[in-house]
Amino acid sequence: MRHRLSKSQQGFSLLEGLIAIAIIMIVMGMAMLNFGTVLPNFKANSAMDQVLYQMRSARERAIAHRVEVQVQFVGTNQITMTEIWTVGTPPAPVTVTFEGGAQFMTFATVPDTPMAFGNSSAIYFENLSGGPPVMKFTTNGSFIDGGNTLVNGTVFLGIPGGRPSTARAVTILGATGRVRPYHYDGTAWQE
Question: Are 72 and 93 a contacting pair, CB within 8 Å?
Fold first, then answer.
């Protein structure tokens, strides 16, 4: 005796299976095309987060330890923070290197950030291209140069050879030491 399956118990037809596979392949192809922009943006975000964390950490250490913390931008992808103690042995300087190929850089087609501190160079503080030789956070959290003058500035980052959408920036307001991150979405800076 043969038992006949009802329509709800039968599997997919060959045509239905092929259509399902085609839809899956189209979705996978679209995902692979988007992956090319996701990875550089992820690397740029990682570098921006490192700069943001190090600047905020340096400011907090200056306030908490009641010492000045000097910040130096070294080469194309390093930041060094040094606590300046007048008495005792200070801790060793901390140097952070960006991973993933991100560097201090600007893109010709990307405008200045909303803070408008300038973007003529990748590390721009006040009107000194490349930044003052000595920049530091003070015990009250403000950001100054070697002459004890408040300085505002921006650190621009990106992926070399990448799209302008990998542009990132971190601004520092000298009077308060406030550190703000920005990313460029292709048309404007977003906080």
Answer: no
Residue 99, pLDDT score: 80
88 touches 123 (CB < 8 A): no
The 3-state DSSP class for residue 91 equals coil
Please report the pLDDT score of residue 135 as a whole number: 87
Q: Classify 151 as helix, strand or coil.
A: coil
Give the span between the Cα atoms of 91 and 156, in whole angstroms. 28
**pLDDT under 70 in the chain at which residues?**
1-10, 34-36, 127-133
Instruction: Answer whether 44's CB lies under 8 Å from 102's CB.
Output: yes
Tokens at 53, concatenated: 């964390």
Cite the DSSP H helix spans in the chain: 14-65
126: left (phi over 0), alpha (psi -120 to 50) or beta: left
Token output for 112: 């200045």
Q: Can you say whether the dihedral through the CA atoms of 95, 96, 101, 102 is positive or negative?
A: negative
Walk me through the domains of the chain, giving residue ranges and CATH numbers.
Answer: 42-190 (3.55.40.10)
| pTM to 2 decimal places | 0.75
The residue type found at 26 is I
CA-closest candidate to residue 100, choices 45, 24, 173: 45
191 vs 114: CA distance, rounded Å: 9
